[in-house]
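Please, structure for the following, as tokens.
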Amino acid sequence: MQPSLSVDSQPTPWRERLRKFGPGILMASAAIGGSHLIASTQAGAIYGWQLALIIVLVNIFKYPFFRFGTQYTLQTGDTLLVGYMQKGKAYIWAFLLTNLVMSVINIAAISLLCAVIMGFMLPFALDVPVLTVTLMLVSTLILVFGKYRLLDSVSKVIMLTLTLATVIAVVIAFGRGAVAPTDYIGPSPWNMGALGFIVALMGWMPAPMDITVCNSMWVAAKRRLTKVSYKEGILDFNVGYLTTALLALVFLALGALVQYGAGETVQIAGVQYVGQLINMYVSTIGEWARWLIAFIAFVCIFGTTLAVMDGYSRCSLESIRVILRKKESRPTYVNLMIIFNVIAALILIFFFKNALGPMLKFAMIMSFVFAPVYAWLNFSLVRSGEHRVSGWLYWLSIAGLIYLIGFALLFVAQQFGVI
């Protein structure tokens, strides 16, 4: 006979509410990677506080389209890919092909960054390819054996740790003050020459738009584990999204306070920049800060590695399932995960190791160029039903579409020499 639960053993309202969180926090973990650690800090290091407005605007204008991924799944019980299929089979095929390509690029790039950062933390030298493969294997084991439940728990720990560590670092940096001389005049981002950097910054801010599809998959997985109401699901999303937006400004502050005007050329390539960022902290705050900053960076990128490996795999499998109209898709989740890891590792080790910086920037730019397509699709799926978009959210969506399309057309026009 099972013993009855005492009053003390019953879940408290706070703990029960925390259990309902997951997909939004996981989305934040996926977002806070290249866009925050690299792009946001570079923006602050090169331009100071000048691009803070751009970060705020892109987070505001992308908000509806990220929310709609969660909203559609909470409302219908289906993932966004089912909705795309209803719009037309061509959308699903286009998404699957794009997802397969972007997964290889992003998993390879993020895994390499994670390995480089880990190298700064180790007391002994170890080849980056060896570290990269090791981290990818560890990530795969976590996801294969822990499935969503473990990923859900790990992401909450990562986000809490990252937030606390980042706030501490910013408080220290503010206490020391900016390193830039009071009369320092930095470069201006308000010219066509800086458009590529701004578009790359916005492409992964707060995350690539295809992460909305991953998020709808995580919402569906969460609802299979725990009963989550529409209100609770939207609250989880809002907390995760607001966290990413605020941390984007925090990382901008790190770059602006520690590197802007320091007299050292900012390295644009992601791998070199991580080392420069850590070393700049050491030179301004003290040697003890090396481990704090390295830890922040590692936790940030490792969380992103777990999230993108899981998310891209889920999306590819769901695309295959929807196309074939089957209850279960083949190859299985585990097999597809292994294939992704092998492909990413081979590309990283044998072909693109020295070009991951440009490849990362290319992926960020492409994410922004295609963002209006995903934005319109997500918007079109929530135009009906009990929780259909209306009021301020509707008009923010219209403004967001204009903003995203306008910048994308401006960038394309510049690339073709029209302007």
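The chain is about 75% helix and 0% strand. Residues 30 and 307 are 5 Å apart (CA to CA).
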